[in-house]
Amino acid sequence: MKLWKGRFSKEANSSADAFNASIETDQRLYKHDIEGSLAHALMLGRQGIIPIEEAEAIRLSLHEIMEDIEAGKVTFLTEREDIHMNIETLLTERIGAAGKRLHTARSRNDQVATDLRLYQKEVIREIQDLLSALAAALDELSGQHKETIMPGYTHLQRAQPVTLALHLGAYNEMFKRDIERFGDCYKRTDLLPLGAGALAGTTYPIDRHFVAEKLGFSGICENTMDAVSDRDFAIEFTACCAIAMMHLSRFCEELILWSSTEFAFIEIDDAYSTGSSIMPQKKNPDMAELIRGKTGRVYGDLFSLLTIMKGLPLTYNKDMQEDKPPLFDAGDTLKDCLEIFTQVIRTMEIKKESMEKAVDSGFMNATDAADYLVKKGLPFRDCHEVIGKMVLYCIGQNKRLDDMTLTEFRSFSPLFEQDVYEAIDVRKRATKS
């Protein structure tokens, strides 16, 4: 039986019922829905809008329903459409007419917006914890490799020598900004929509600030139409997820390259690798590849939300029922990826010798040689040309800059002295970064 049946003269088509229902998706909001209802019922009784004894009966029954759901004793029904109507129907079945009073001074519009914000606040904190765990793992690994030299790249070409600690630290800065970004999103999520009603508030003497305090919100949504009609907080959250996934994907791309035979900078632990069904020798970095692939999925979640919202007039429209799948998927996917990636980082083997050997080729001390001449008084553009000619000479002679004799150095510029060898020492250069 529909809770809104009074206006209608016949039952809904069964196919339309199934199409309209969202319980398969939003049932995961049961805890948040009950938490919101508990605070709302307490406020209704406190304000004298419903009898205190009925508010208490609602409270006790909602706790019992929560326990039964978590014990697997509750079956949610499609004909009840969503989590809100499923729980309200259960409540009414258990305590009768008092259960029907719970929905006084609220709408499903402000109810679902409240549930989503409660859910999102919780997930933001979980993601921040996972990002912090990844940052800690990177800090630990960086501490072990302050002296490990490797090539730094631009255009995927060897450019200048750096330490592995510096390279890892670059990603750590990105992940720390992600933590801050989610923190900013949390601030805009942390406002209570409940009390906005369907769109224009209510004539009952409700206390929205009391409900906000009980639910742990820092404040309320001041404009009731905005409170129920926008999902920019969800879009912002999904954008934060997409940016964090982009950072993970870039890092995964490097781990995939580094674990190849051509690089051989790392070896991913067997526990986080897979093999080939046909080639016995293969060890594939599938966890990193999956994270890279799932990044596109989270991008899709973001664009799905943006597209859902882009043409909606005020206030609530049924289109917004489709906000939950992309919101849930973005958070779930990012959390899964962070958990796996952190373990990949903690368990992978660093092949220091391969990294340091790679520094010996590619003329990565060429910039330092140019800087050496600058310090001797030659304009940088002239230095750049001199060193370019030296690199060309070395390629023809199959030698490195370090292998050149002082006589060879001076044939390109009389400014070179014996101290040039110290200036172009790749290890000294890298550890200064």
List keywords for this structure.
single chain, 433 residues, mainly alpha, 3 domains, Fumarase C, Chain B, domain 1, two-stranded parallel sheet, Ribonucleotide Reductase Protein R1, domain 1, elongated, Fumarase C, Chain A, domain 2, two-stranded antiparallel ribbon
Task: Please tell me about this protein's structure.
The protein is mainly alpha-helical. It has three domains: 5-104, Fumarase/aspartase (N-terminal domain) (Fumarase C, Chain B, domain 1, Orthogonal Bundle); 109-357, Fumarase/aspartase (Central domain) (Fumarase C, Chain A, domain 2, Up-down Bundle); 360-431, Orthogonal Bundle (Ribonucleotide Reductase Protein R1, domain 1), CATH 1.10.40. It is built from 19 helices and six strands. A two-stranded antiparallel ribbon has the order 1-2. A two-stranded parallel ribbon has the order 3-4. The longest helix is centred in the N-terminal third of the chain and has 37 residues, at 108-144.
A few lines on this structure:
By secondary structure, this protein is mainly α. It has 3 domains: 5-104, Fumarase C, Chain B, domain 1; 109-357, Fumarase/aspartase (Central domain) (Fumarase C, Chain A, domain 2, Up-down Bundle), CATH 1.20.200.10; 360-431, Orthogonal Bundle (Ribonucleotide Reductase Protein R1, domain 1), CATH 1.10.40.
